[in-house]
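Handout, page 2. Input:
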Amino acid sequence: MDAKQTGKWKAALEYGPLVVFFVAFLLLRDRTVHLFGQDYSGFIVATLIFIPALVLSTLGLWRLTGKLSPMQVATLVLVLVFGGLSVWLNDPRFFKMKPTIIYLLFAGILGYALWRRKNWLEAVLSEALPMRPEGWRKLTARMALAFLGLAIANEVVWRTMSETSWVYFKTFGLPLLLFIFLMGNAGLFKEYGIERKD
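Output:
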């Protein structure tokens, strides 16, 4: 399989479970589903569908690339824990808190790296994005603040808006905000980037 095909499969495996959750929620959001002797909202059933979809996609990514990023592993663990709690306790709040926990976790890790003067971000991304050390320090600080902002945004949305609004925010809003953040750092990548020597 060539690099282009691998990239397409990787993208499909990364975003596939989110699409599955979104579609399942849209189809089931106004329904109550009776399972295992209990009534569940469409949101909980969509969460129940999302969990194995994410497990399978993560296994597929590992099979395809031979490795998993720390963020992919953390996401899987937190989905299993918080998604599982939402289904088990029939309470959607746990699953809605999951993005907050993920973003706070990464903001904390990056903040700690800055405090310890470690370039952990460089260790993870330097192959795809070669930069000078000062560029990595600036990017680490910006990403820590960005993750903190996303955690706050998620809390505000799920606590103050409708369930449907939160699902749209999680599916489209959070990825869009991350994309805007990366595009906003194009100047940093250009200023501190290092040309590859092939």
